[in-house]
Each structure stands twice: as structure tokens, then as C-alpha cells.
Amino acid sequence: MKGRRERYPDAEAEAVERDTPLEPALEEADEEAGRDSAYRRRRQPVRVRRHRTADWLRAARRHWRPLLAGAAVLALGAGAEALLFHSGWFVLRGSDQIAIAGAQQADAAGIQAVFSSDLGRNIFFIPLEERRQAIEALPWVRQATVLRVWPARIEVRIVERVPVAFARAGERLRLVDDDGVLLDRPPQGHYDFPVLDGLAGVNAAQPNAPRWRSQRLAQMRQFAALRADLDRNGQHHSHDVSEVDLSNPGDLGARVAVPGGGTVLIHFGDRSFAARYALFLSQIGGWLQKYPSMVSVDLHYDGEAIVDPGSGAAPAVPIGKAAGKKPAPAGKATAKRPARRG
User: Which of 82, 152, 265, 302 is at 20 to 30 A from 145, Cα to Cα?
Assistant: First the structure.
């Protein structure tokens, strides 16, 4: 028996006949297939959570030596900090723990008094730089070095100032160094220095204030130049000088010893001290024979000397007043520099 063959219209043909698109139907089929596949398998592997305590123990077993070493270093650091900064071994308890070296004229008690506020304090907390500056502000101290000495001592090393002259301050004489710092004369000790007149600020309430010291420094440099020129080639003629007037920077006056006793005032000007003093030495014998009472000689004109014979006929050239070249006044003798022989 032959079966009846029935014919079904194709879906595509049916879609064409109905004018409906086929793509939405296919997309729904794909989404269904995707949902089924998501339940069937996983695209990424599942992560297994590990216990953190186990990880820490495993890391500790692996790195226990570095951890132990770090803990030991921390413990040593804490112990050292407690020992150095909180132990009684490093406390400055008295002035007997302060050693002073190099102080001959400087007041040792005054140096120790700088540390009076540090007694009972750990030496590592003492500001050494501040203490050094305070010590250098004391008389006679030119430079200071402050050191900590194990376990609880302070050492102070002093470089003292060296006086080079006397400074006339009213009715008394004070010592002065190359920097223009005024110093009190110690009760013991003998000094053979010239006396300096005209130094700035010697009678002020605070004569060593920076303002006065800066002015005196320029004056002391001029005095040092005079000494250096007079002592050139080992002559040591600066020992002949007993007084120096530094009030006028353009005319330095010095009172020097002359043969036969007595002194004569020399106006040197502001330069060529060695050459002008050589002229004085070459002529002083003849001047004294001709003018036994001579008072002064003006040498600050190169190659020329103006002598004040001291006769009273004309006043002597005031020290520190000559400002420029002028003719020889009446009653004064003029000497020319002798010509050099070739």
C-alpha cells in the first residue's frame, strides 16, 4: 500500500510568503544554545582559596633567619639608645668633668661657667656649637674647640689671643692684638710694646663691640705694615718705636728713639715706611748736630724731609694734620734724599 506523501512548505519559503524576517528566530536559537553551554562547562578554572595562616607559617619557615636578624638589630638599637641617652653614665655632674687645655691668660673659671646650665644633663644633649661660640666671646680667647670625651667628660681646647701693643684708653693702658681686640692686662707678666694712640672706641662702654673692632682692625693693619717694613731684611727697627699715632690714616706718626737718648716724632704718611725710615737714619746724625732740640721730622713727602728744630720760631707740624705737600715753613730745615751712586 502506497503511503500518502504529504508536502510541507519550506520554512524559508513560508517566511518569504509571509514577509517576515528569519534572523530574529535564528538569534533566539543561538541565545538558547549559549545558555545551555554555560550550564554545561566553565570557561575559567575555579580558584581554590588558601588559608592565610598557612601562608604566613610557610613564609616564616622560609625567611626566619632574616626576620630573626632584624629583630636582633632592633633590640640592640633600642638598648643602645636607652644606654646612651638615659643612662647615668653619660651625665655631666660637675665642673671637674670639664678639662681645659691651652688657657694661660684666659679665665678658666669663666670658661667653666659657660657650662653651668649643663650640669646634670646628658653630654649628648649639650649643644657644643653654642658653647664654642660663647667661649670665643670671652676675653683672651681667639679660637675654641669643644669635644665630648667618653664616657662623660667635656674637653675645651683654647687658642689665646696674642697682644702686639698697648692701647691708650684715657688714663690707663690696655693690651690690643692684631685683630684690634682690647685685652685687660693680667696681674702677672711683663710686656714691652709700643703705645698706640687714636684707636677707635677704646673709651666706649663696650669697646670690643663689632662696630669698634671693625674700625680698629683697619688701624691695626696699618700698624702691622709699619712693623713689617721697619723689620725688613732682619733690621728689627720696630724696636726703636715707642709710640704710634693711628688717628689719621693718611699720616701715621711714630715716636722713635734717637742716638744719644731722647725721641723724635716722625710723620711717615701712609706708605713707603722702610724707604722713609732709611732716609731718617741717614740724616738723623747731622740733624741732631745742627738742631740738638729738634722735635719732629715730616717724611711723608718722598725724597724730602721737613725738620722742626724745636727753636720756637715756628710750630712743629702737628701729627696727623698734614694732608698734602706744602713748602717748608719758616724756621724749618729741608733735607733732600742723597743721590744714589750707581
Answer: 82
pLDDT top residue among 111 and 45 = 111
Cβ pair 265, 283 in contact under 8 A: no
Residue span of the structural domain in which 244 resides: 163-336
The model's confidence at residue 316, banded by pLDDT at 50, 70 and 90, is very low
Same domain, 265 and 151: no
pLDDT tens digits, one per residue of 91-111: 899 989 999 999 999 999 999
Supply the pLDDT for residue 117.
Answer: 93
Last residue of a domain, one of 144, 160, 176: 160
d(CA 2, CA 324): 159
Cβ count near 225 (within 10 Å) = 15
Question: What's the chain's average pLDDT?
Answer: 79
Q: Are residues 259 and 117 in the same domain?
A: no
- Tell me whether residue 50 is in a domain: no
Q: What is the CA radius of gyration of the chain?
A: 50
The pTM (predicted TM-score) of the whole model is 0.67
* pLDDT greater at residue 79 or residue 140: 140
Q: What DSSP string describes 197-251?
A: E--TTTTSSSTTSHHHHHHHHHHHHHHHHHHHHHTGGG--GGGGEEEEE-S-TT-
Q: Which residues contact 11 (CB under 8 A, 6 or more apart)?
A: 22
Residue 82 falls inside a structural domain: no
Q: Residue 108's domain is classified under what CATH number?
A: 3.10.20.310
> Which residue in 75, 95, 78, 88 sits closest to 124, CA to CA?
88
